Amino acid sequence: MQRQFLVVVLVLSLVAATSTAVLSPPAQAQAVTVRMVWQGEANEIKLYEGLAAKFEQAHPNIKIKLETVVASSDPEYFQKVLVIAASGDYPDIIYGHYSWFPVALEKKFLMELDPFIAKAGISKSTFFPTAVEQFSANGKLYAVPRETSAIALYYNEDLFKQAGLKSPNDYFAEGKWTWDTYLELAKKLTTDRGGRTADQTGFDPNSIVQWGTIAPVNMPYGLFPVVYSYGGDILDKTNTACRLNQPSGVQAIAFLRDLVLKYKVAVLPAQAAQTNLFANGKVGMMAGGYWEIVVTGSAIKTFSWDVAPLPKGKIQATRVATGAYAIPAQAKHPSEAWEVIRFLSQRDNTMGLARLGLIIPALREAALSPEFLAPGKTPLHRKVFVDALSYGRLDPRTPRWAEMVNTIGSEMDLVWAGQKAPEVAAKDACDKVNAAIK
Amino acid sequence: MGLLLISPWLVGFLAFTAGPMVVSFLLSLAKWDILSPPTFVGLSNFQQILYDPLFSKAVYNTLVYTVVNVPLSLTGSLSLALILNRRVPGVSVFRTLFYLPELTPVVAASLIWAWILNTHFGIVNYFLSKLSLPPVPWLESTKWALASLILINLWTVGGSRMLIFLAGLQGVPEELYEAAALDGASAWIRLLHVTLPMISPVIFFNFLLGIIGSFQVFTPAYVITNGGPADSTLVYVLYVYRNAFQYFRMGYASAMAWVMLLVLLGFAWMQLRLMQRWVYYEGEVRT
């Protein structure tokens, strides 16, 4: 009895499944559907759905299908996009951060956009030059930059005031904002349970309750900017040989090690992230990208905070990274896809995204507009992010990016743990990286 | 009729297990970066495995994890099952409580554990500091990270393995204990000579599953430490994952997966052979 019942249910559900498939209405014949693979959080999705509706109204023959990929990290996002592409079911537009671009370039996966740009009469110089450069090869542009970001230094203004210290922006204005100054400030901002600071005798590093800084050692956006500012490189100009083991790179690594192990003024990022240490007012300074304004800033309720440029080593430097819209070489509707990209890249539409707070528009007039720079709004010095675009550097371009980052990261872990000297770890990292990228 | 009834499982098996296995075997003989078509390279992926230092590191980590974790969690769940097998009021409440960790999603539990073991704010180090002990960098030191993952895994000892033990224990006939007690056997002797032989098939089953599970450990190593620090928690499956989905060496990753399958099959075969020495099935007579 029961068994028969189960069979009936099974058969019925099969019938139901097939009939809905058969009976569903055929797609409209003329309209072209542009599929866009991208990622975004709830507010961004809402915004893009609105933009898509607006676009479809103006272009009745083009429909936009947003395929939002949920991923917790860039490599994971790229992996999912690749799997979609590998199935042969190419989307028409792919939004992505730069880290996937070298692989896409190597595999000739993307379409050259110069003909479209020329036809539309758009000048590449309307975008920040680093943003264009990041998605160009041999003078050809392969993606239209949407947003760009630089690493700057967040700081807890209240902690600075309590300690009677001048702010990083004051030091910057005086031209004295160096990593050495940063270290001295970090010492004065690190306190133990007994209220002693790290530069006082009797300071107990085992009972620290407040840290001067979060060690900028995250891979890659913590370590790389420091290496750049010490005048070092990760790879050489042709991206074929590791240069981290050169004296300037080793110097940067040694500085970071001393922050953690010698002066004990820096907490490792993994521990700080778990407890949202900066937002909880337990850290004086933290290097981070523009996105932290929303990610961390929105969690800050009890103190005032601001941003300043990264300290200077040999040179004033930081790291710049870009996100952009691209069209796969095998896209079914490239010219319609271009229309969509062009629409999304218009000043008003890109500003809509910027208003959500997560991105700096790659379009210069948008990023330099008073609306974006929002004078009087926390963080007061948000312009440092835009200024940083002029001296910021791009990461080396290698299709073995993920492997390179993991390899360097593993060696650096040993340095922060005090198990390997900076020059040895840098050399070992370079040997392995050279083997991987050759 | 029977075939129809198991068809959902059968279709699932063919589409999601057997099919991918065949494909991955073919890929293990090829080079494939997902974007360009695969090219046949013979056994060179397997050859490359021999010279890959990270491969040996991953094997080493996985072996350490297995060798420490399996006996610990096995004795843990068995002891727990023995305790929860008593007829005391409220025992079902305790059984439920001990089973609860199994119901927590591994990722959520992993994140909570990362908190608990946080060097500066974790509750474990807080208690250590009360005992005037220095903080232990549970997850940041190459000495502790793997051990911490094993510790974290122990929190599910009350889970399904304990349940299987419990079921086995309840299948041991009461009269055997009675007879042994009449002969003057102490509780310890009864455990050694009645309980353990009687539930030996269950022990064997859990042992085998424990080994397979330990070889396949992935989630905590991915979520909590991401293989670090300095690859000290880079376990086998995590390295397969990285090769496949981060470095786009599908062929190499497939070859690694097949090496693991062969090793596990070898283990299972060895166990089945050894089993005849210490596993007793009901009504079986050994001379």
Automatic annotation (TrEMBL), chain A:
It is found in: Cell envelope. It holds the Pfam family SBP_bac_1. The keyword Nucleotide-binding does not apply. Keywords: Signal, Transport. It comes from the Bacteria. SUPFAM superfamilies: Periplasmic binding protein-like II. Residues 1-29 form the signal peptide. InterPro entries: Bact_solute-bd_prot1, SBP. CDD domains: PBP2_TMBP_like. GO terms for cellular component: cell envelope. Belongs to the bacterial solute-binding protein 1 family. This is Sugar ABC transporter substrate-binding protein. It comes from Candidatus Segetimicrobium genomatis.
